[in-house]
Design brief:
Number of domains: 1
Number of helices: 4
Radius of gyration: 13 Å
Number of strands: 0
Order of helices and strands: HHHH
Low-confidence stretches: none
Distance between the termini: 23 Å
Strand content: under 5%
């Protein structure tokens, strides 16, 4: 897991536990795009995992 993914996961955990009052506040605190955080909260997969079947293994 890279640093950006770790920040997104931490923001989601803190939002669910009530540390932040809004997605906007969590996104700002972790320096991640609000739209990315919102999409992840809705259950959207990362672009890497959603396109894994398109990756060629050599």
């Amino acid at each position: 897991m890279d640093a950006r993914e770790a920040a997104i996961q931490a923001a989601i955990e803190n939002l669910n536990s009530g540390v932040f009052p809004s997605q906007r506040a969590a996104a700002k605190a972790y320096a991640i795009p609000r739209a990315t955080l919102s999409a992840r909260m809705r259950g959207q997969q990362t672009s890497q995992t959603s396109h894994v079947y398109q990756q060629r293994l050599t």
